[in-house]
Specification:
The chain is α/β, with parallel strands linked by helices. The chain contains 5 helices and 11 strands; from the N terminus they run E-H-H-E-H-E-E-E-E-H-E-H-E-E-E-E. It is globular and about 45 Å long. Bound molecules: zinc ion.
């Protein structure tokens, strides 16, 4: 995996704004649940977009995840949730059944679509029929390019219908119950 990252401005959404924009979230439970690891709020349309990109393919495909950080205060240190807001497929790529190289253009494409308080929050890719897990190379990619404590890595096996989420430089696995799907 080769990456040429372009720095994004980091801006957080405060709990107050999140409450206004996303009333589906029960905020008190959000704060309680987010003690050690932020909740990942994953809208169904974005899941659909990602699955449409990677399904029925025998080669690895991937792209970037765009989202917003929800913070108790205005600090990236007190993150209680990460809201996925878009997925940017990497269009020009070199991929085989077991590897994937994305072009810097996907970063430009993602950055050009960022609106208020959105940033490139992580990346996703598929492991067709290999199982959803982070390989050593994936862990290195995470460490080299998605090393902030709020950076996500999503891996999907569309054939086996599996997905796994990781967070931070060490690619810590996020428990399934921290991923909250919802309809917009
Ligand atoms: Zn991989």
């Amino acid at each position: 995996m080769k990456w040429t990252p372009i720095k994004s401005e980091i801006a957080t959404i405060t709990l107050k704004k999140a409450a206004h924009d996303w009333s589906f979230v029960e905020l008190s439970s959000l704060v309680r649940d987010a003690q050690n690891c932020p909740l990942i709020l994953y809208p169904n349309p974005i899941r659909k977009k990602i699955m449409n990109h990677v399904r029925d393919q025998n080669v690895e495909l991937g792209g970037l995840l765009v989202g917003s950080i929800v913070s108790i205060t205005d600090s990236v240190e007190e993150i209680i949730a990460i809201v996925l807001r878009d997925a940017i497929p990497s269009i020009d790529f070199v991929s085989s059944a077991v590897s994937l190289t994305m072009s810097p253009r996907v970063w430009q494409s993602a950055n050009s679509r960022l609106r208020d308080e959105m940033l490139v929050i992580g990346w996703y890719h598929s492991h067709p029929n290999l199982g959803a897990f982070f390989s050593c190379i994936d862990k290195k990619t995470q460490k080299d390019f998605f090393y902030n404590h709020y950076n996500l890595g999503l891996v999907i096996d569309p054939m086996r219908n599996e997905e796994k989420w990781y967070i931070g430089a060490e690619a810590d696995e996020i428990e399934e119950n921290r991923i909250r799907a919802f309809s917009l």
